[in-house]
TrEMBL record:
Membrane topology: Lipid-anchor
Region forming the signal peptide: none
Entry protein name: Variable large protein
Function: The Vlp and Vsp proteins are antigenically distinct proteins, only one vlp or vsp gene is transcriptionally active at any one time. Switching between these genes is a mechanism of host immune response evasion.
Keyword Membrane applies: yes
The species this protein was found in: Borrelia crocidurae DOU
Subcellular location: Cell outer membrane
Length: 59
């Protein structure tokens, strides 16, 4: 029952995040995907911060 809720939720949000989930998808694979996504978001945030710092110094 708990697994069904897990996969139902993931099916709702996975399409918008570019991740396809089926009942055969392992929770470990889902975790790896979201960890990777978090790293990419963190990288993007750092780059935006660096860019904004440079533009502030130019003003």
């Amino acid at each position: 029952m708990q697994g069904d809720a897990f996969y139902s939720f993931l099916e709702l949000v996975s399409g918008s995040l570019g991740f396809s989930v089926t009942k055969e998808t392992k929770k470990e694979d889902v975790g790896k995907y979201f960890n990777s996504l978090g790293e990419k978001i963190g990288f993007a945030i750092r780059r935006v911060g660096e860019s904004s710092s440079k533009s502030i110094r130019r003003c």
